[in-house]
Amino acid sequence: MFGWFKKQKQAVPEPLKQPEEPVIEEWLTVPKYVSVDPKAYPQVVLIATSIASGENPQSQFIVRRLLVPNPEAKRVSMIASCLMATQEQQQYVVRSIKKRVSEEA
């Protein structure tokens, strides 16, 4: 009845929040193999074709691309193998390796 006698709560203004920039999180697949440096092509192609041709000098070979194992993928595979070696009676297969790339928008 006499509610106007009671002390009213004062509205406390909330501090303004600055908008947070969203963090975009992407996962990129680490390739198992990477291309060879173009400067090394002639030497590698010459060695590969000479080994493949053997005694038949009339044969022809076309090298479409040269790939080498990716050092980053090798390193991650070795770390995973070492960690899993502590587990007994476990089998595992590394199907893909991905790395996180975070960008602030």
Structure description:
The chain is of the alpha+beta class and 105 residues long. The protein has one domain (21-104). The protein is 26% helix and 21% strand. The protein is built from two helices and four strands, in the order ββαβαβ. It has helices at 41-53, 71-84; strands at residues 23-30, 33-35, 67-69, 97-104. The strands form two sheets. It has a two-stranded antiparallel ribbon with strand order 1-4. Strands 2-3 form a two-stranded antiparallel ribbon. The protein is elongated and about 110 Å long. The two termini are 56 Å apart. The model has no long low-confidence stretch (mean pLDDT 80).
Offer a few descriptive terms.
alpha+beta; two-stranded antiparallel ribbon; two-stranded antiparallel sheet
